[in-house]
Amino acid sequence: MDEITATELKQRLSSGQHMQLLDVREPSEFEICNLGGELIPLQELPKQTVRIRRDVPVVVICHHGFRSAQAINYLNQRFGFDNLLNLKGGIHAWATEIDPAMRTY
Questions:
Q1: Distance (Å, whole) CA 74 – CA 1
Q2: How does residue 17 score in pLDDT terms, banded at 50, 70 and 90?
Q3: Distance of CA 46 to the CA centre of its chain
Q4: Rounded distance, CA 94 to CA 80, Å?
Q5: Closest CA to 22 of 3, 41, 50, 2
Q6: Which of 11, 57, 77, 81 has the fewest CB atoms within 10 Å of its CB?
């Protein structure tokens, strides 16, 4: 599985690289802190795959990187996605490494 670190994601976002952010956490978690992008909770993925782009890299985000890894494995195996990157350490890594002012939980 391909991964991207918080630092690498920050660099790509700062350079204006086209990508989709896909957050697979629950809405209550997304309200606490998020990077924007599409919110599709993990259990909703089977019904929402049409919202996931195939033409750009898609960075999949969760709290610590475990649910996003599950999502990537599922989307690769069931739907043939090959453009997915797991945010290593999840939103927590972003908050601790990139944006210490971001709320954590």
A1: 12
A2: very high
A3: 16
A4: 28
A5: 41
A6: 77
The token duo for 91 is 């939103």
Alpha-carbon span 84 to 63, nearest angstrom:
17
Model pTM above 0.85:
yes
Model confidence pLDDT, tens digit, residues 22-44: 999 999 999 999 999 999 999 99
- Calculate the average pLDDT of the chain: 97
Contact 95, 102 (CB under 8 A): yes
Q: What percentage of the chain has pLDDT greater than the value 90? A: 99
- Quote the tokens at residue 52: 């996931």
CA 104 to CA 49: how far, in whole Å?
Answer: 28
Residues belonging to the active site:
62
Q: What SS3 class is residue 51?
A: helix
Look up residue 82 and give its two tokens.
């090959």
Distance of CA 23 to the CA centre of its chain: 5
